[in-house]
């Protein structure tokens, strides 16, 4: 569901910026990346960690197995575990008909009709610390396919607003790019287009959980 591979850069510049330090989450990160799990940093480990960090905008991008890198990987692990039963715990209402669910804890969203999964689950990028995506029951009240934010002057394609200035919309950033959005629920372009086609004004949205790091 979530692409994790990226080309590993080579050369002296990369080698020079790679840390030799063993991070506190070295073993977990090695396991996630399919490396030999020995808890010891190697040049190859560093390059693999650095490539992951570069793909998702995690800084400093030096190949260190720190808390943010592991937090990101752990979120991806939880997303994979959701499979096709993201609402197994029943946290998102099943008595509303068509509803878009947003799980902040797993940074995951999907659309369901009652108990039937209609789309997803897909990774999302929600609000950062102090600008969290607000939890609770909402409804889509305004849609604009070519919206541009008047506050931040940035494009918000396929915008579907459900809580004040908070909306589903497309972004080209990685869904794991820290520290997160300014409150909106970011989607990958193809997912944002699908949400646009599946939802309409008046449809329910339910946001719950807590984003890691907020």
Q: Could you give the topology of this structure?
A:
Layout: H1 12-16, H2 26-32, H3 43-56, H4 67-82, E1 98-103, E2 108-113, E3 116-123, E4 136-139, E5 142-148, E6 155-163, E7 166-170, E8 185-187, H5 189-198, E9 204-208
Parallel strand pairs: 1-9, 7-8
Antiparallel strand pairs: 1-2, 2-3, 4-9, 5-6, 6-7
Describe the structure in brief.
The protein is of the alpha+beta class. Helix content is 24%, strand content 25%.
Task: Write up this protein.
The chain is α+β, with helices and mostly antiparallel strands and 214 residues long. It folds into 2 domains: 12-79, no CATH class; 84-208, L,D-transpeptidase catalytic domain-like. The chain has helices spanning 12-16, 26-32, 43-56, 67-82, 189-198; strands spanning 98-103, 108-113, 116-123, 136-139, 142-148, 155-163, 166-170, 185-187, 204-208. The strands form 2 sheets. It has a 5-stranded mixed beta sheet with strand order 3-2-1-9-4. The chain has a 4-stranded mixed beta sheet with strand order 5-6-7-8, with helices on one face. The longest helix has 16 residues, at 67-82.
Defining traits:
cell shape; 214 residues; 24% helix; alpha+beta; LD-transpeptidase; L,D-transpeptidase family protein; disordered N terminus; five-stranded mixed beta sheet; cell wall biogenesis/degradation; 9 strands; transferase; four-stranded mixed beta sheet; L,D-transpeptidase catalytic domain-like; 25% strand; globular; 5 helices
């Amino acid at each position: 569901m979530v692409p994790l591979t990226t080309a590993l850069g080579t050369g002296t510049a990369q080698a020079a910026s790679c840390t030799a330090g063993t991070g506190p989450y070295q073993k977990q990160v090695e396991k996630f990346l399919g490396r030999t799990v020995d808890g010891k940093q190697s040049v190859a480990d560093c390059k693999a960690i650095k490539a992951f960090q570069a793909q998702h905008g995690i800084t400093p991008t030096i190949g260190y197995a720190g808390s943010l890198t592991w937090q990101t990987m752990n979120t991806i692990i939880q997303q994979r575990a959701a499979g096709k039963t993201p609402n197994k715990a029943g946290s998102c209402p099943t008595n509303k008909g068509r509803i878009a669910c947003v799980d902040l804890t797993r940074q995951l969203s999907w659309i369901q009709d009652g108990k039937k999964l209609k789309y997803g689950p897909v990774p999302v990028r929600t609000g950062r610390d102090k600008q969290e995506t607000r939890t609770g029951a909402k409804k889509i009240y305004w849609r604009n396919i070519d919206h541009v934010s008047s506050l931040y002057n940035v494009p918000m394609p396929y915008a579907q607003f459900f809580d004040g200035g908070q909306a589903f919309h497309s972004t080209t950033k990685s869904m794991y790019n820290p520290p997160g959005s300014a409150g909106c629920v970011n989607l990958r372009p193809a997912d944002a287009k699908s949400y646009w086609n599946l939802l309409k004004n008046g449809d329910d949205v339910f946001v719950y959980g807590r984003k890691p790091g907020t």
